Amino acid sequence: MKFPGRRKIKHYFPVAQANNGLPKSEVQPTKDTYIVGLDETIVDVIAKVDDAFLARHSIRKGLSNLVDPQTASAIYQELVAEERISDHFAGGTIGNTLHNYSVLADDKSVLLGVMSNQINLKSPEYHYICDTSSKVDMNHLQGVAGDIGRGITLITEDGERTFAIAPNAMDDVEPESVNEDVIANAAAFVTCAYPLRHAGKPIKATLMKCLQLAKKHHVPVIITLGTQHLVEEYRDEIQQIIEEYASVVAMNEQEAEALTGETKVLKAAEQTLEWCDMVLLTAGPVGLYLCGYTDDQFKRATTHPIKSQDIADFNQWEFSRPQRKHDCESPIKVYSHIDPYMGGPERIRNTNGAGDGALSALLHDIAANSFHQQQVPHSSKHSESHLAYSSFAQICKYANRVSYEILSQHSPRLSKGLPEKEDSLEQAYWAR
């Protein structure tokens, strides 16, 4: 596993130990450090069409249209035949997060969900696999007879975007497909709130089983909220799940307001910490916040400028390491904030996935803590129980850097890790 962030010390783990075992792509639960996630597997398809095409398939222009599998298949086949498709992107909030985690950590993750039993060359399923890191273990996906989800973006000559969404079989993952050992030995389990929309589909029962297994085996649960409208519709249920299962909640400022009713991001984070152990809150041009708990006796004061917003001097203990509230004798709330990296990209090419990128960095640090504890169990880093390896402030820097990389490219998925060396401009930024 690569260690998260840039450090002055070259080696953190034993590097001279012999390793005579052959590498395996499939996760070995009792030997590997990995995270596991449940997702609705979907592929985003981008195509240019005319108004006649939309009329022919009864697609309402400029809106998001939910279509049945037969209509979706007809639309896709016509797009292929007329060579209208410009690109395919593997999608899904958790799929994106796992891919980015595996790229950053150069290590394994496990994806739970569905995949078509039969995959044809250049099909959406084929593109999903091609666009996903080889470090993402897909051996635990459930095979289905139909297609995985398709989100087709239809762009007309006037630039208007119209969406045809076909869930297909993406919500058909059955609880029986979940291997308890895979979750029991994971460094973290990550999921999103989207399956809550599908009470009549197997994926919701599968989600609840995964949450129960993670709780049973004391595996940190990370939940990302999805969209503001989803949170508004399922607020009570989401809050209940967070209180019962979640260690970490990831959300943006709109989702935070929908969840807590607080319009101020710090106050929303403060309220959410009454239900979980840590909050990752991305706030667009304002930057991102990482909030959580540490034991009063282990708090570490920041050397950064002290900040005050709706909470006075809120970042004064941001050099502390995150802990679960129940692991603290005298828990105190800790808040850290960072402005967009280098002021944000000169040109933002993609806003989809920046929050997922930040979450993948946090997951990397959580997994690194688990890995380091396995490799160096007697290290002073583990004399007390911590949720992550680095401080709140250090994780903020790392998450911020990954978000910048996502914003600077067209895809929500990283094609490679972060640059190994800082250039002079970056050094000047952090020297401020």
Structure commentary:
With 432 residues, the protein is an alpha/beta fold. The protein has one domain: UDP-N-acetylmuramoyl-L-alanine:D-glutamate ligase. The chain contains 13 helices and 16 strands. The longest helix has 22 residues, at 354-375. The radius of gyration is 22 Å and the shape is globular.
How many domains, as an integer? 1
CA distance, first residue to last residue = 31 Å
Shape: globular
Largest sheet: 9 strands, mixed
CATH topology: UDP-N-acetylmuramoyl-L-alanine:D-glutamate ligase
- Our estimate of the beta-strand percent is 15-25%
What's the arrangement of strands in the largest beta sheet?
7-5-1-11-12-13-14-15-16
Please give the CATH architecture. Answer: 3-Layer(aba) Sandwich
Order of helical and strand elements: EEHEHEHEEHEEEEHEHEHHEHHEEEHHH
Q: Approximately how much helix is present in the residues?
A: 25-40%
Q: What is the typical, i.e. mean, pLDDT?
A: 89
EC number: 2.7.1.73
InterPro entries: IngK (IPR046405), PfkB_Carbo_kinase (IPR050306), PfkB_dom (IPR011611), Ribokinase-like (IPR029056)
Cofactor: Mg(2+)
Function: Catalyzes the phosphorylation of guanosine and inosine to GMP and IMP, respectively.
